[in-house]
Amino acid sequence: MDEDTEADRFFEELLHAVDQQLEAGETAYVRATFDRLVKAGLTEEEAREAIARCLAEASDRMFRSRRPFDEDAYRTSLDELQSEP
User: Fold this and answer.
1) Which residues contact 7 (CB under 8 A, 6 or more apart)?
2) pTM
């Protein structure tokens, strides 16, 4: 499996995680971000992808630092997302 295929598969897994977060009550802030981005003009797919990129960055920081997932940092990065595709 080449690097691009692995990256694509990883991103698909992140999108699946975002879908789960959109439905979970514990992560209502993800739904709020999604709704805000769609209301501001992004398509639903663009909003999901933007959130997935934030999740990827937060996960990468977690693995590199060998620390627990920093939910506060994730929430901050979601709050900073802009509505430009």
Assistant:
1) none
2) 0.85
